[in-house]
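tl;dr need the bound structure. longer version: we got a ligand (flavin mononucleotide) that a collaborator sent over and nobodys looked at where it sits. i said id run it. heres the input, straight from their email, havent touched it
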Amino acid sequence: MLKQIKSDIYHLLHPKMAFFLTSIGKDKKPNVMTCAWATPVSEEPPIVIVCVAKEAYTAELIKKTKEFVINIPTKKFLKELWICGKISGRDTDKFKKSGLKIKKAKKVKPTVIDGCAGYIECRLLKTVEAGECYAFFGSVVSAYADDKYMRDGLWFEDAGIPLHLGGSRIVYAKKK
Ligand SMILES: Cc1cc2nc3c(=O)[nH]c(=O)nc-3n(C[C@H](O)[C@H](O)[C@H](O)COP(=O)(O)O)c2cc1C
Protein backbone atom coordinates (compact mmCIF):
# COMPACT_ATOMS: atom_id res chain seq x y z
CA MET A 1 0.00 0.00 0.00
CA LEU A 2 1.35 3.44 -0.95
CA LYS A 3 1.52 5.79 2.03
CA GLN A 4 1.86 9.55 1.73
CA ILE A 5 5.17 10.84 3.05
CA LYS A 6 4.78 14.17 4.83
CA SER A 7 8.15 14.71 6.48
CA ASP A 8 11.79 14.05 5.62
CA ILE A 9 10.77 13.68 1.98
CA TYR A 10 14.46 13.91 1.03
CA HIS A 11 14.92 10.37 2.41
CA LEU A 12 13.17 9.14 -0.74
CA LEU A 13 16.29 10.25 -2.64
CA HIS A 14 18.64 8.22 -0.44
CA PRO A 15 20.86 6.21 -0.26
CA LYS A 16 23.50 8.82 -0.87
CA MET A 17 27.23 8.40 -0.45
CA ALA A 18 28.41 9.60 2.98
CA PHE A 19 31.72 11.43 2.68
CA PHE A 20 34.04 13.79 4.55
CA LEU A 21 33.80 17.41 3.45
CA THR A 22 36.96 19.30 4.37
CA SER A 23 37.38 23.06 4.50
CA ILE A 24 39.84 25.52 6.04
CA GLY A 25 39.79 28.84 7.89
CA LYS A 26 41.75 31.97 7.08
CA ASP A 27 43.82 31.01 10.16
CA LYS A 28 44.79 27.79 8.25
CA LYS A 29 42.90 25.59 10.73
CA PRO A 30 41.24 22.70 8.89
CA ASN A 31 37.74 21.38 9.56
CA VAL A 32 35.86 18.27 8.52
CA MET A 33 32.16 17.42 8.48
CA THR A 34 30.24 14.38 7.32
CA CYS A 35 28.07 15.14 4.31
CA ALA A 36 25.70 13.16 2.11
CA TRP A 37 23.95 15.76 -0.01
CA ALA A 38 26.14 16.11 -3.07
CA THR A 39 25.79 15.65 -6.78
CA PRO A 40 27.65 16.19 -10.03
CA VAL A 41 25.90 18.84 -12.16
CA SER A 42 28.21 19.16 -15.16
CA GLU A 43 30.64 16.73 -16.74
CA GLU A 44 32.45 19.25 -18.98
CA PRO A 45 33.65 21.30 -17.25
CA PRO A 46 33.37 19.13 -14.13
CA ILE A 47 31.15 20.87 -11.55
CA VAL A 48 29.71 19.40 -8.36
CA ILE A 49 27.35 20.69 -5.67
CA VAL A 50 27.59 20.09 -1.92
CA CYS A 51 24.66 21.16 0.27
CA VAL A 52 25.63 22.44 3.71
CA ALA A 53 23.41 23.73 6.51
CA LYS A 54 23.82 27.50 6.92
CA GLU A 55 24.52 27.00 10.63
CA ALA A 56 27.39 24.54 10.03
CA TYR A 57 30.90 25.83 10.68
CA THR A 58 31.86 24.30 7.31
CA ALA A 59 29.47 26.73 5.56
CA GLU A 60 31.18 29.68 7.25
CA LEU A 61 34.62 28.41 6.17
CA ILE A 62 33.66 27.65 2.55
CA LYS A 63 32.12 31.12 2.22
CA LYS A 64 35.30 32.69 3.59
CA THR A 65 38.05 30.72 1.86
CA LYS A 66 36.12 29.48 -1.21
CA GLU A 67 37.55 25.98 -1.47
CA PHE A 68 36.56 22.51 -0.29
CA VAL A 69 37.48 18.85 -0.72
CA ILE A 70 35.14 15.87 -1.03
CA ASN A 71 36.88 12.86 0.59
CA ILE A 72 35.30 9.51 -0.22
CA PRO A 73 35.72 7.00 2.62
CA THR A 74 35.33 3.25 2.86
CA LYS A 75 33.67 1.23 5.61
CA LYS A 76 36.80 1.43 7.77
CA PHE A 77 35.90 5.09 8.48
CA LEU A 78 32.41 4.43 9.88
CA LYS A 79 33.17 5.54 13.45
CA GLU A 80 34.85 8.74 12.21
CA LEU A 81 31.87 9.49 9.91
CA TRP A 82 29.55 9.56 12.92
CA ILE A 83 31.93 11.65 15.03
CA CYS A 84 32.36 14.26 12.28
CA GLY A 85 28.62 14.28 11.62
CA LYS A 86 27.54 14.90 15.19
CA ILE A 87 29.81 17.65 16.50
CA SER A 88 30.78 21.04 15.17
CA GLY A 89 34.31 22.14 14.42
CA ARG A 90 33.37 25.58 15.72
CA ASP A 91 34.42 24.57 19.22
CA THR A 92 36.06 21.14 18.80
CA ASP A 93 39.06 19.93 16.83
CA LYS A 94 37.42 16.99 15.05
CA PHE A 95 40.74 15.69 13.77
CA LYS A 96 41.92 15.23 17.35
CA LYS A 97 38.56 13.85 18.42
CA SER A 98 38.29 11.34 15.55
CA GLY A 99 41.95 10.50 15.01
CA LEU A 100 41.59 11.25 11.28
CA LYS A 101 44.96 11.93 9.65
CA ILE A 102 45.38 14.67 7.10
CA LYS A 103 47.66 15.36 4.16
CA LYS A 104 48.10 18.27 1.77
CA ALA A 105 45.81 18.60 -1.21
CA LYS A 106 47.45 19.08 -4.63
CA LYS A 107 45.84 22.36 -5.68
CA VAL A 108 43.66 23.76 -2.88
CA LYS A 109 44.26 24.79 0.75
CA PRO A 110 41.78 22.51 2.59
CA THR A 111 43.44 19.29 3.67
CA VAL A 112 42.72 15.79 2.39
CA ILE A 113 41.79 12.89 4.70
CA ASP A 114 44.51 10.26 4.52
CA GLY A 115 43.47 6.72 3.56
CA CYS A 116 40.24 7.58 1.73
CA ALA A 117 39.30 5.78 -1.48
CA GLY A 118 39.41 9.04 -3.41
CA TYR A 119 38.99 12.78 -3.24
CA ILE A 120 37.83 15.74 -5.31
CA GLU A 121 39.40 19.17 -4.86
CA CYS A 122 37.03 22.06 -5.60
CA ARG A 123 37.04 25.86 -5.90
CA LEU A 124 33.81 27.67 -5.11
CA LEU A 125 32.08 28.77 -8.31
CA LYS A 126 28.84 30.05 -6.90
CA THR A 127 26.55 29.77 -3.89
CA VAL A 128 22.80 29.37 -3.98
CA GLU A 129 20.67 29.81 -0.86
CA ALA A 130 18.15 26.99 -0.53
CA GLY A 131 16.07 26.87 2.64
CA GLU A 132 18.28 26.01 5.59
CA CYS A 133 21.22 25.14 3.33
CA TYR A 134 23.69 26.68 0.97
CA ALA A 135 24.23 24.80 -2.27
CA PHE A 136 27.93 25.31 -2.96
CA PHE A 137 28.82 24.81 -6.62
CA GLY A 138 32.40 23.62 -6.86
CA SER A 139 34.56 23.74 -9.93
CA VAL A 140 36.68 20.56 -9.84
CA VAL A 141 40.38 21.37 -9.99
CA SER A 142 41.72 17.85 -9.44
CA ALA A 143 40.52 14.41 -8.41
CA TYR A 144 42.21 11.16 -7.36
CA ALA A 145 41.04 7.60 -6.69
CA ASP A 146 42.93 4.64 -5.23
CA ASP A 147 43.16 1.78 -7.74
CA LYS A 148 42.46 -0.61 -4.86
CA TYR A 149 38.88 0.65 -5.06
CA MET A 150 38.43 1.98 -8.61
CA ARG A 151 39.30 0.80 -12.11
CA ASP A 152 38.55 2.46 -15.47
CA GLY A 153 36.81 5.31 -13.66
CA LEU A 154 34.28 3.12 -11.82
CA TRP A 155 34.17 2.10 -8.17
CA PHE A 156 34.30 -1.64 -7.60
CA GLU A 157 30.86 -2.85 -6.52
CA ASP A 158 32.34 -4.09 -3.26
CA ALA A 159 34.61 -1.10 -2.56
CA GLY A 160 32.77 -0.58 0.73
CA ILE A 161 31.75 3.03 0.08
CA PRO A 162 29.21 3.96 2.81
CA LEU A 163 25.73 4.77 1.52
CA HIS A 164 23.52 6.75 3.89
CA LEU A 165 19.84 5.83 3.99
CA GLY A 166 19.05 8.54 6.58
CA GLY A 167 19.09 8.52 10.37
CA SER A 168 21.65 6.03 11.62
CA ARG A 169 21.34 3.65 8.65
CA ILE A 170 24.34 3.03 6.43
CA VAL A 171 24.43 0.32 3.77
CA TYR A 172 27.04 -0.92 1.30
CA ALA A 173 26.77 -2.02 -2.32
CA LYS A 174 27.28 -5.73 -2.94
CA LYS A 175 28.68 -7.55 -5.97
CA LYS A 176 25.93 -9.53 -7.73
C1 LIG B 1 25.65 10.44 7.67
C2 LIG B 1 25.55 11.95 7.83
C3 LIG B 1 25.28 12.74 6.72
C4 LIG B 1 25.19 14.14 6.85
N1 LIG B 1 24.93 14.89 5.75
C5 LIG B 1 24.87 16.25 5.85
C6 LIG B 1 24.66 17.05 4.68
O1 LIG B 1 24.53 16.55 3.57
N2 LIG B 1 24.62 18.39 4.85
C7 LIG B 1 24.76 18.99 6.09
O2 LIG B 1 24.72 20.23 6.18
N3 LIG B 1 24.97 18.25 7.20
C8 LIG B 1 25.04 16.90 7.11
N4 LIG B 1 25.28 16.15 8.22
C9 LIG B 1 25.42 16.83 9.52
C10 LIG B 1 26.78 17.51 9.72
O3 LIG B 1 27.84 16.59 9.50
C11 LIG B 1 26.85 18.07 11.15
O4 LIG B 1 25.90 19.09 11.31
C12 LIG B 1 28.24 18.56 11.53
O5 LIG B 1 28.28 18.68 12.95
C13 LIG B 1 28.61 19.92 10.93
O6 LIG B 1 29.93 20.18 11.33
P1 LIG B 1 30.60 21.64 11.28
O7 LIG B 1 29.77 22.56 12.16
O8 LIG B 1 31.99 21.41 11.83
O9 LIG B 1 30.61 22.08 9.87
C14 LIG B 1 25.36 14.75 8.12
C15 LIG B 1 25.65 13.94 9.24
C16 LIG B 1 25.74 12.56 9.10
C17 LIG B 1 26.05 11.73 10.31
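gonna send this back to them w/ a short note. The chain has three helices and 14 strands.
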